[in-house]
Amino acid sequence: MDRTEVGWLVAAVVVVAVVTAVLAVRMLLKLVRARRVLKETGMPLSTKAMFWGSIIYLVCPVDLLPDPIYLDDVGVLMLALRSVHAAAARARRGREV
Questions:
Q1: Do residues 58 and 73 lie in contact, with contact meaning Cβ atoms separated by under 8 Å?
Q2: Are 31 and 54 in contact (CB under 8 A)?
Q3: Which residues cross the membrane (predicted)?
């Protein structure tokens, strides 16, 4: 490999790391905004634990995949966000009845 190929490889890795970091931060912001839902509705303890567990997993230095690859972090945040919104929808339906 010559220097040009190495340069392109490094640039590609940096771009992938930046994109996944941006996705992880966006998901974290959405999850923190969803925290209001946890306070307003009677969420089950498992949903609250998943919310806080995903936040802890994001900042924890021990990951399933090395830190330049944020796919595991994004996946955990997406799962927690989905669970919070599903619990909120169930709570809203319960209040409407």
A1: yes
A2: yes
A3: 6-29
d(CA 87, CA 59): 24
pTM, two decimal places: 0.56
**What is d(CA 41, CA 56) in angstroms, rounded to the nearest whole number?**
22
Q: Whole-angstrom Cα distance, residue 78 to residue 54?
A: 9
pLDDT in tens, 17-74: 888 888 888 877 877 777 776 777 677 778 778 888 887 887 777 777 676 667 778 8
Domain ranges of the chain: 3-96
Q: Are 50 and 80 in contact (CB under 8 A)?
A: yes
